[in-house]
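Inverse folding, one chain.
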């Protein structure tokens, strides 16, 4: 339908709902701010498509703290780098060229950078290993031979602290070698993706980092998921005091990672209308129940199943300028449009929906 008609229909569906949810949230900072203002106006819940992954790291930060660094600092100073995960080639795609682990750390006199890889055995990191076979980098790997990443992280922490583990002797010997290298680091870095580790494994890894800091410098570099997940997390934090999976149903923000999971809200029947935002790509909602659905997605994305309204939006940094989290820099950054297409931004579309709600009589944004 024409954009004006789609805006009007989206406003009608939202105005008629009693428990809407705004999900996906694959948008830039301006779009995230606009979505939060709309949620506040409607009494809606908000959730990001990668909340489950983000909240694992955040849970550990809230419960026991994290020692963190940035990709740039890891590249310049990290003389020992511990890579934890099986699908590292995918997780590191955005930051791998900028980490430049094949080069030696610049401020130190170390002739090479030691890169240690901890994997459970089904690793997708062959390309990473190939990229580290240079005169200035040395890569070593632990293949867990069936042990889970959680077990390997726990065993490595135990051996680093001189505690026994129940594992095959050759694996224990390799663990001991890794532990010795980690403790000899001048500036060590542990890299992981919460998409591969559960909360307890991340807490164990961060505990290892904390243990190592008793005798040297060691920091963590968690890899953020895509779709500006970390940028949206920051926008939620400064606007509500909470991360995503927050509701405005009672007129003020309330956060609960289980109650306000968008998939659970829809599949349980608690939500009666959904807005799905995915401006960076073609991700679709994972819920199974049919629900009145408004989709704001990139022009080349297929309409999510069951969408009553679909509005094409531009991709931030491609079709229009926008600010989002830059994994390479480890902070928010502004990106100019690669080629202006005239497609509206998520923020512009949500502003039009707010204007349409004014005509229906909903309280203003």
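Residues assigned per position:
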């Amino acid at each position: 339908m024409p954009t004006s008609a789609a805006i009007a229909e989206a406003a009608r569906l939202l105005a008629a709902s009693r428990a809407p949810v705004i999900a996906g949230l694959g948008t830039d900072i301006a779009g995230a701010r606009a979505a939060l203002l709309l949620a506040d106006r409607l009494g809606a819940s908000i959730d990001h498509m990668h909340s489950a992954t983000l909240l694992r790291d955040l849970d550990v930060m809230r419960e026991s703290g994290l020692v963190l660094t940035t990709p740039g600092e890891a590249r310049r100073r990290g003389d020992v780098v511990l890579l934890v995960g099986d699908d590292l080639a995918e997780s590191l795609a955005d930051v791998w060229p900028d980490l430049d682990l094949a080069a030696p750390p610049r401020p130190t006199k170390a002739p090479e950078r030691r890169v240690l890889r901890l994997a459970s055995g089904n690793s997708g990191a062959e390309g990473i290993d190939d990229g580290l076979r240079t005169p200035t980098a040395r890569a070593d790997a632990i293949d867990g031979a069936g042990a889970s990443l959680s077990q390997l992280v726990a065993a490595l922490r135990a051996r680093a602290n001189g505690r026994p583990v129940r594992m095959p002797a050759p694996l224990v010997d390799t663990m001991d070698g890794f532990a010795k290298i980690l403790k000899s680091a001048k500036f060590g870095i542990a890299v992981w993706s919460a998409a591969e580790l559960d909360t307890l494994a991340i807490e164990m890894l961060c505990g290892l980092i904390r243990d190592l800091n008793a005798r040297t410098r060691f920091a963590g570099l968690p890899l953020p998921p895509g779709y500006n997940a970390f940028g949206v997390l920051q926008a939620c934090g400064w606007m509500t005091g909470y991360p995503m999976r927050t509701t405005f149903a009672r007129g003020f923000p309330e956060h609960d990672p289980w109650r306000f999971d968008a998939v659970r809200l829809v599949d349980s029947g608690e939500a009666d209308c959904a807005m799905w935002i995915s401006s960076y790509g073609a991700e679709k909602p994972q819920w199974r129940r049919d629900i009145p659905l408004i989709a704001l997605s990139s022009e080349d994305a297929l309409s999510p199943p069951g969408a009553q309204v679909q509005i094409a939006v531009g991709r931030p940094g491609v079709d229009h300028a926008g600010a989002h989290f830059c994994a390479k820099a480890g902070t928010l950054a502004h990106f100019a449009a690669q080629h202006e297409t005239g497609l509206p931004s998520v923020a512009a579309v949500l502003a039009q929906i707010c204007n349409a709600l004014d005509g229906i009589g909903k309280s203003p944004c």
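Residues 169-183 form the longest helix (15 residues). The mean pLDDT is 90.
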